[in-house]
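During data preparation, we tokenized the protein backbone, and the record follows.
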Amino acid sequence: MASFKQAFGTAVRHRRHRLGLSQEAFAEKAEIHRTYVSKVEAGKVAVGLEVAHRVAGALGTKLSKLVGEAEQS
């Protein structure tokens, strides 16, 4: 079973890919550094609520939906 960090990162990566965004373009929209995006998607960091909210917004979804996707993994 994957950790929640890994499941959240996978959900972020899948949504980003569906939107056709590069990590760099996504990072700019979410106002975070591209290397941080890489760490989030790899499940290497626990994202705080403020950043998670910006990530969801940059992906065009609500944070609750993104968390729900991660919980289903």
